[in-house]
Give the backbone structure.
Amino acid sequence: MKYRFLTKLILSFCIFLCSIHCFSQQTIADATNLTTYNNALKLYNSKAYAAAFKTFSKVAEDASVGSNLKSDANYYEAMSAIKLNRADADKKVLTFVEENPNSNKKNIAFYNVANYYFANKKAAYALKWFQKVNLDNLSKENRKELNFKMGYCFLATNNLQLAKARFLPLINDAKYGNDSRYYFGFISYKLEDYGIAESTLKEIADDESYRAEITYYLLDISFKAGKFKRCIKVGLELYPTIERKLKSDVAKIIGESYFNLNKYAESIPYLKAYKGTKGKWNNTDFYQLGYAYYKQNDFENAVNSFNKIIDQKNSVSQNAYYHLGECYMKLENKSAALNAFKSASLMNFDKNIKQDAALNYAKLSYEEGNPFEPVAQVLQNYLKEYPKSKAYQEINELVVSSFLNQQDYKGALAFLSEKKSEENIALTYEVSLYRGIQLFNENKLSESVPFFIEAKKSKINQINQRAKYWEAESLYLLENYKDALSKFIAINNASKSVNINEFSRLNYNIGYSYFKLKQYENAGNYFKNFLKKDSISDNLKYDALIRLADSYFATTNYTKAISTYKNVTDNFGLGADYAQFQIGMSYGFIDKNEEKITALKNVINNYQVSNLKDDALYQLGNTYSKIKDHKNAHIAYDRLIEKHPKSTFVSRALLRQGLLYFNDNSNMQSLMKYKDVAAKFPNSPDALEAVANARNVYIEEGNLEDYVNWVATLKFINITNSELDNTTFAVAEKKYLESKKGEDIINSLQNYIRKFPKGTHKIKANYYLADVLFQVKEYKKSIPYFEFVINEDTSDFTEDSLNKLSQIYLNQDDFNTALPLLDRLEEEAYVTENIIYAQSNLMKGYYETEAYDFATEYAKKILQKDKLDATISNDAKKIIARSSFKSNDFITAEKYYKEIEATAIGEIKAEALFYNAYFKNQQKLFKESNKVVQKLIAKYANYKYWAVKSYVIMGKNYYGLNDVYQATFVLENVIKNFKQFDDIVKDAELELNTIRENEAKTNNSVTPEKKN
């Protein structure tokens, strides 16, 4: 906008003010006041407005009410306030007018105030005062000046129509004409009245003051009129010399003109030179540059423009996303193309683009997997939307395959059941096999069996035989060994005609089935056959050797058992400590006691981590006892008691020592051992035996009175009531052993406990009752009985009670109660499986209670085990990885997740893949991270939490790759489609808002979400 008249106007205003220096004849009572007024006027004319204001205020205060001096002083006080920009300036002017309604200075006051604000470029303030001026009191020239200034103020405050009306009467004026014509033409341009704008502006096109602007406006008018060739000609002439502030806009006109004439190569440099509005482009700007690159087959640069188009749904964005999809296809980035085609397919601006985009989206979903919708659903949606499509048959055939590719066997079976045909029925049998195996791998064994039975109906031999094999495997793990065996044998007889990978372990499986059924000779034969195979893994090999040796041992062929166990110990194979222990036991049964002693010592000394050390010490003591070496027997028993105080062998070792001392005539030492058993293990069978043996010692010593006194202190001994106690318990125990369920057994056991709360069999009775209640799933009722057992001294039932009671609390997620039980179980357990169970759940419990150091410690304990199931191993590694991540030890977390990824299946594999993608994102390996996410989506999309969580990583990766569209598309779809995962949606929202805030800095079409 031009201000070239402002200097002249201000100058004339000052001359006008200086001319006002005399007053009407009046009577001045106080000559001093007049002198002060004149001094103030001098200050005012000298622009010392602060001093003038202060002095005029004093004069106005002292002057007589109604006097001309007071009126004039108030006037200049108000004018000084205006000059000083005082907050009360407007009020002072209005007060002057109100108090002096007939003053000839009123109109001048309004006019002067307006001119002052105009000179200081405060258009809105100036307009307010200009509108108060009475035009009748102005000269013709002043009216023109007023109209011009008001027109400018209306223009500056965007009141274009009012401004236009003010400039129109002045366009032929000698003084204001050119400026008014320029502003009138400019306003017509802004109001898109291009005909009037063009004709008006052309009249002053040669005016040096406006030439650059008018040339640009005329160029833009030509562009809007579709005169693209003219725009290019004029624009190219104008571009090198145009003012810098207009250069960007001229470049845009040239670029768009080339674009509209399909001269895309020529358009690119000018489109790029455009700086945008206030430094920002909009989506149309990005589209034009992207499309120009696209038409030059420069797909990389096309993508970099198209992918910045976000936050709008219109024909521009639909076209952009469709072409973006094509560019991604050309660049072989199909997963990104899928998203772009999806966006284009959801818009209705161009029906042809919509349908073609939908077809591409459906095909790519099948080929690449779909992170946001089940592929089969995408395909079926296409068929429903476009039933007359030429691609209908092609897409229809992909539906079942898509279920299988996504491992959504449940969905495939549902689809096939709705579309019955001979072909689909045959396919149902095959899919049933896959669904059964899927459930088997999830340890849902009972649920898997019906699917294997269904799959056996298949006429395809390989499907039929595999179904039979997996049915047998399931029955075996369900402990139905007899049926499993018959099915394994049937498969084995038919396996010669079928080459199926699973069948390589048939002899091993049959051997185990016979072994579980205690048919050891048959078991041994099949284990031998299995060991003849080549390419057996070491773990399977050593396990089969041990079971073969166990079969020899069980059939009393100890010599063969020893030689077979030695195949394991000589190679330090899996389970070598067990094999060494069994070698010792085998030697014992053939009366080679020295060799037995050597073997047992090997267990004790050669295996740092072994659960059999207490067993070996107990057997070593027994062996020394057998060969009359009582000294070494005591050493072995003492070491057992000292090193393994929680072992179930402690009470028996004490009994044995008591007997040895008695046989050596050391009666007092013998008595001490028996009393130790009675004190530490009351109510146990060993305690009862200890009391009976102690009786013999007292008799030997001839001191029966002391025996009676001692027995009287033992609460578990009730001589007078023992027969009734034993009889009542015998009835209850018989029912328990015959059937472990039903009200009858529960009532019998409760009856015994009620009658004999301190009875001889109270531990066993409480355990039996707890066990029955546990079996019938009355878990809450079983708790007090299990607690009774574990709160008594260690017995044969302590271990199982700790196991089952901890299970109850773990199922309730009551980790704080479960952890102490698991801790005891780990220390006191004899069965290896219970130790692993305790450690694995201690590991999980500590993790859940955020004790990450303890969780990691137990996980590492588990990983030190020799014979470890892959699932347990991966669970332990998972806990280490998770705990390390929670503790910000990302190096350790990444290491263990890599190990898990190499061997795991199912959900834990999906978790490992997520963290692989996460760590690659943190390392700014965005492309590599996205490849991992795509693998997760393609193969493990059923594990929704990890799949959806990985999409947020994918969004971050795309933004790291400067692909704004893909980043926002992915994050928006997470927010839209997966509201069940609150934590993931919050992460996605945070990331999306960050992206929008960043992009809004360079793209006018993007509006970031306002923060509350």
User: Anything to note?
Assistant: Residues 188 and 197 are 5 Å apart (CA to CA). The two ends are 39 Å apart (CA to CA). The chain has 54 helices and no strands. Residues 1-29 have pLDDT under 50 and may be disordered.
